Amino acid sequence: MREVERKPYMQKPRDWCEGMKHSSTAQTMRHLRVEVMELCEGAGLYQIDLLNGSKVRVSEREYWMKQRGQLKLDHENAALLATGQQPTQTKFETAKEVLRRQISEVLNVATSFEDFSDRLLQQYGITVKESRGRLSYLPAGRTKFIRARSIGDKFEKELVLAALKANTERKRTIQSKSDRIGKLIDIQAKLKQGKGIGYERWAKKHNLKTMAQILILLQDKGLLNEDALDQRIAELDTKFHESLAVVKDLETRMAENKTLRSHAAAYKQYRPLAQKRNAAKSPAAFEEQHRVELTAYRAAAAYLKANNITSLPSPNKLESEYCALASEKAQFYEQYKEAKSELLKLKDAKQNVALFFREEKQTQHHEREGVCV
Prior knowledge:
The chain is mainly α. The protein has helices spanning about 25-40, 60-80, 95-105, 115-125, 155-180, 185-190, 195-220, 225-280, 285-290, 290-305, 315-370; strands at about 125-130, 135-140, 145. It has eleven helices and three strands. The chain has a three-stranded antiparallel sheet with strand order 1-2-3, with helices on one face. The protein is extended and about 95 Å long.
């Protein structure tokens, strides 16, 4: 409608001249995405990465297919309701949406890639294929594989393996919790709360089974003496806290190493770009075109200056240091887990033994009172 001031991201006359039809160029769209991300960051709002991919990728074709499918389904459901029938489906799903849902369901429970591919094939008839480091999926009834990148980053090989690893760790944690000794039930307290005779019988059996587990544990450890048990608990408590302190220190050093590697790589990669910016005929236009890269370079330079780093460290040296720290952390983390597991078991055992003898005394006292009456 009117001529506007030309900005560095404007490439063609139609972007600023009067009387021309506007059409967003790739450079304009990139500028708008960066602006939106910076506005969200400045306001402290949640934002997604508009410059890179998303975990679930929906194409324009799929979007409009879903809209048309939902509209058609709504009309069909309205006709069913008019005749007094209840619709069986209210939400329309595209073929890719069904595929995403099915893969996600399996991905939430599988613990290895073999388990992942087997479950997909058995439950939904989906075949998984890996080619050149990328995954593709073949749903039942199709003849052509669907590439993972066309349905979302979440289904790419790297993120799939990360999810499977997380599932394995979670399963191991659950199993370690199940190995713990259960706690005795304070039967007298439960009876005062109104529990009946049936509950009392069950609680007595539960306490006897738990005490049998405790006795086996204490015999295996040679801790039937109370003083020996207290001494072992004190030793494990010290070992637990010392190992935890070392693990936390190593994690901090690993994080610092990772940050340094990231900034050093960004500084080395984008330094020539910063030098070109200073020599450019139009620094503002060059700045706008490479805003993300130059921002990363300046952040890296500020980090190196704040930490008094005058020469870039060797990437191979930093990588070796990180691997050594990770190996040391794994060693101490195993000590920490072992000490924690045994410490919790012995503390539960000590607490249960004390509760058991207190319960026995209360039972004997109530029996004597009954005889006196």
